[in-house]
Amino acid sequence: MAIQRMDHVGIVVTDMAAATAFFVELGLTPVGSGEVEGAWVDRIIGVDGVRSGIAMLETPDGRSRLELSSFHTPPAPDGDPQAPANVPGLRHVCFAVDDVEDTVMRLKAHGGELVGTIERYGDVYKLCYLRGPEGIIVELAEEIR
């Protein structure tokens, strides 16, 4: 087998505190943070002069992690925080939740905004896309029982 598991998804943000608070409210637990810099980081990501803050957050089951990175140097080009869900690239991260409506209400207090509406996918899920800090699109999926 070529891989053992998916370890984490990395998201670059400019406001580490707001992004961390959003994902903590969603239910992730901070498991580590720090600063990284030096030639080894430059070589890994192919950017010179990197100094970055990172925060690692973990899902309640301990199986998935989200790495937030905020680059202090070098300056990064601006992205489009309002890019629609059909733009090529990594567009969203999906989390299974107990109650979509409650989760949306809690995340609105942290800047979350519904992209569309909460909808049913047959008798399987209630789903929605929510845009969080930095324009990150989070899909919420509530299993219908």
Q: What's the structural blueprint in terms of helices and strands?
A:
Blueprint: E1 8-12, H1 16-26, E2 29-37, H2 39-45, E3 51-58, E4 65-73, E5 92-97, H3 100-108, E6 113-114, E7 119-121, E8 125-131, E9 137-143
Account of the 3D structure:
- The structure is a single chain.
- 19% of the residues lie in helices and 39% in strands.
- With 145 residues, it is α+β, with helices and mostly antiparallel strands.
- The strands form 2 sheets. Strands 5, 6, 7, 8 and 9 form a 5-stranded mixed beta sheet that branches. A 4-stranded mixed beta sheet has the order 1-4-3-2, sandwiched between helices.
- A hairpin with a 3-residue loop joins strand 7 (119-121) and strand 8.
Please outline the major beta sheet: 5 strands, mixed
Number of strands: 9
Spans of at least 5 consecutive residues whose pLDDT stays below 50 are: none
| Strand percent estimate | 35-45%
Percent in helix: 10-25%
Rounded to the nearest angstrom, the radius of gyration is 16 Å
Roughly what is the average pLDDT, rounded to an integer?
Answer: 93
Q: What separation lies between the terminal Cα atoms?
A: 34 Å
Order of helices and strands: EHEHEEEHEEEE
Keyword list:
145 residues; alpha+beta; 5-stranded mixed beta sheet; 4-stranded mixed beta sheet; 3 helices
Concise summary:
The protein has 145 residues and is of the alpha+beta class.
